[in-house]
Design goal:
This protein is mostly helical. About 75% of the residues lie in helices and about 0% in strands. It has helices at about 1-20, 25-40, 45, 60-90, 95-105, 105-125, 130-140, 145-155, 165-175, 185-215, 220-245, 250-270, 285-305, 310-315, 340-355, 360-375, 375-395, 395-410, 415-430, 430-450, 455-470, 475-480, 490-515, and strands at about 320-325, 335. A two-stranded antiparallel ribbon has the order 1-2.
């Protein structure tokens, strides 16, 4: 009964968005109100309240949720869409479109290059929605339909999220699962390699699905299959080597760069020459001007990442805000580094690139203001969803869901371990948050089951969390916002659910049977 009560917010969100087709912001707001009612009146009465829980403190969980939503999720989403709107305003998006069109006449190559390649690089470096918002927006500008653009961007943004934002999710997972709270580099590399192994079938399946969605005609089925096998093999090999030998920081970045090379090589070798196709030619300065926004974004993200340790340490050590909330243990704070966050890097890159493209600073501010106003519904949605996750966590509801699943599944738990990670991402919208919530749970269950490899079961949390990302309401909200589909969250989620379900099933089978082999 406790597990069913804890599941009410998740079930209600599904019913509102899928059953009643309510817009995302209304569904999230209604679900938040119901969750607050449950958190105020039921945890203590039903006996699943965690230690230190006080119903009178639920309001501080709301404050925590609002802070987490704004810093940095909403800031990053806003800046990602701001960067695209600057390209529209300056007209340089037309140059990018022509370059992509000149690069290949194959729609499948183009879509895979943007979502699996470029999107993976963005996820590896920045995360927090940039890899959904930017590729989806570019696809629409190239003439693809909004629903298609949103869906393929969500699918492509699944596997790399485990190593997104320079490996933060897996590093966090390793630390959470470690008895000492600080994992060794060897443990991080082991878990990273396990994640890649558990997701290895999906590195082949997802490119094939994306290619089939782009062009599902029977005559191209075999071509799509071999293309997907080629891209998947390169992605798997590069990610696994990076994970085992370099750790969690680089698999998404290096794997995506390798995938871009593989995709372009395939196009060069196998794409048929199309007569009459326009081969646009641009000078180096014209290309630099068109790509300046993204080039500077990537430059600043690299400079601020752990790949540049001296700069990263300086940024993390200065202008850091700390908020002490009564629901936190002594010595714990909500922290936000004003200098060391992807949102600032997106803003700086966009402003510098926009100035290079001929826009004035005042003009850029007007674009930013207009972008903010247009995202009003998305802002409400994400604030409500992140607050919902904070309240559920504080009231013990998320832990109760995980414990209930453990009790029901018993020795078959490894089959369902990824589902717990997926639930965490569905509720919180973040792979990192899911790992914080359930990383220790996975390690504890491994001990209870006398599982031979604790790190294998711990890795399953991120393997599942990446699948939950596909249908996370926050990810859906980002996709609909970037594709100008606000209010159509339920329709997009309905299309994405079968893929997310299949993804989690494949991950579960890999965790269960892979645990017997590896």
């Amino acid at each position: 009964m406790n597990t069913l009560v804890a599941l009410i917010p998740i079930l209600l969100l599904f019913v509102l968005m899928l059953g009643f087709k309510a817009p995302g912001h209304k569904s999230a707001l209604i679900t938040l109100v119901v969750t607050l009612f449950i958190a105020f009146f039921l945890p203590e009465r039903m006996g699943f309240a965690p230690q230190g829980y006080e119903s009178g403190m639920v309001g501080y969980a709301v404050v925590e949720g609002i802070l987490k939503a704004i810093f940095p999720i909403l800031i990053v989403i806003l800046m990602a869409i701001f960067s695209y709107n600057v390209l529209l305003e300056s007209g340089e998006i037309e140059v990018i479109k022509k370059q992509f069109s000149s690069l290949t006449g194959d729609r499948g190559v183009m879509v895979l290059l943007l979502t699996w390649g470029f999107g993976g690089i963005l996820e590896g470096m920045a995360g927090f929605g940039t890899a959904v918002a930017i590729p989806a927006a570019i696809l629409i500008s190239l003439g693809f339909k909004p629903v298609f653009s949103a869906l393929v961007s969500l699918l492509a943004n699944s596997v790399p999220t485990g190593f997104g934002a320079v490996g933060i999710p897996v590093i966090t997972l390793a630390n959470e699962a470690s008895p000492m709270g600080q994992a060794s580099q060897e443990t991080i590399s082991d878990i990273s390699g396990n994640v890649v192994l558990q997701l290895s079938p999906l590195l082949f399946i997802l490119p094939f699905i994306i290619l089939t969605l782009t062009d599902g005609s029977l005559k191209n089925w075999l071509k799509n299959l071999f293309f997907a096998l080629w891209v998947g093999a390169v992605s798997f090999g590069s990610q696994y080597l990076a994970a085992r030998h370099l750790g969690a920081e680089t698999p998404a970045i290096l794997g995506s760069v390798a995938a871009v090379v593989a995709i372009l090589l395939w196009a060069r070798l196998f794409e048929k020459k199309t007569e009459g196709r326009e081969r646009a030619k641009f000078t180096l300065s014209e290309t630099f001007k068109a790509w300046s926004v993204y080039l500077f974004i990537l430059l600043f993200i690299l400079l601020s990442s752990p790949l540049a340790p001296a700069v990263n340490a300086f940024l993390k050590g200065h202008l850091v805000s700390k908020v002490a909330l009564p629901i936190y243990a002594e010595g714990h704070y909500f922290t936000f580094a004003w200098l060391a966050n992807a949102g600032l890097m997106l803003f700086l890159g966009t402003v510098i690139g926009g100035l290079i493209q001929g826009l004035s600073f005042a003009w850029l501010l007007r674009i930013l203001t207009r972008t903010t106003v247009n995202l009003s519904k998305t802002i409400i949605t994400i604030i409500c969803l992140v607050t919902l996750a904070s309240v559920m966590n504080y009231a013990g509801m998320i832990n109760e869901i995980g414990s209930g699943l453990v009790a029901v599944t018993g020795r078959y738990y490894p089959l369902f371990a990824p589902l717990i990670g997926a639930l965490g991402t569905f509720v919180t919208g973040s792979d990192t948050s899911s790992n914080i919530l359930f990383g220790k749970l996975q390690a504890n269950v491994a001990g209870q089951l006398a599982y031979p490899d604790t790190n294998w079961l711990v890795a399953a949390n991120t393997a599942g969390a990446t699948g939950g990302k596909i249908i996370s309401p926050q990810s859906i909200a980002i996709a609909t916002a970037s594709c100008n589909m606000q209010g159509q969250d339920g329709d997009l989620m309905r299309k994405a659910i079968p893929y997310a379900f299949g993804y989690i099933v494949v991950a579960g089978l890999m965790v269960y049977f892979g645990g017997l082999v590896f």
